[in-house]
Amino acid sequence: MNAGQLAALIAAGFFAVLACAGIVVLIKLSRLMSAVTGMVTEYRERADLLIQQAQEAVDRTNEQLARTDAITASMDQVTANMAELTGQVSALAGLARSLSGAAAVPLHGASAFVFGLRRAVAVRRSLQVAAMAETLPVTLAASALTRTGSAAQSAARAAIAASAGEATRENETTEAGCR
User: Fold this and answer.
1) What is the residue-wise DSSP string for 75-124?
2) By Cβ atoms counted within 10 A, which residue in 42, 61, 81, 122 is the most buried?
3) Under 8 Å CB-to-CB from 116, ≥6 apart: which residues?
């Protein structure tokens, strides 16, 4: 063997070792690629699931917005109805005030008549009581005069005068209250 052949044999050996190292690297690379492919597939499935859940959340949000729009439209209608109702109540309040004013005048007159009638009856009763009080002390005093002497007569006269004065004051007070 000469030096050229030995160099070729050594080069072939290095080439075989290099080829084996390349094959090992390629095998490991293929395993890495299959692992990466599996991970990417798994991430894609998770991403698809995540996108599907996000889409469902967006759909639910759209449904809620549609309901909110319906409620807002309903509230607009309620607001319009309340404004109309307020106008009607205001109109009815004016009518009620005019009716109560029209009904109050006869009621005031009737209440004034009843008050006057009650006061007149009270005055008449007080006059009757006063008249009875005037006659009662006179009859009591007369019976006392027949039983006792001059001191009793003067006391009876004073009692009669006092009761007549009280009756007169009561009549004046009652008449003043009626005016």
Assistant:
1) HHHHHHHHHHHHHHHHHHHHHHHHHHHHHHHHHHHHHHHHHHHHHHHHHH
2) 122
3) 178
CA distance 17 to 11: 10
Joined tokens for residue 14: 């290095």
CA distance linking residue 100 with residue 26, whole number of Å: 106
Decide if 167 contacts 133 (C-beta within 8 A). Answer: yes
pLDDT in tens, 42-57: 999 999 999 999 999 9
Cα–Cα dist 164/173, whole Å: 14
How does DSSP classify residue 2?
Answer: -
pLDDT digits (tens, 9 = 90+) for 69-82: 888 888 888 888 88
pLDDT in tens, 7-33: 999 999 999 999 999 999 999 999 999
| Residue type (1 letter), 82 | M
| Burial (CB count within 10 angstroms: exposed 0-12, middle 13-18, buried 19+), residue 14 | exposed
How far apart, in Å, do the first and last CA atoms of the chain sit? Answer: 164
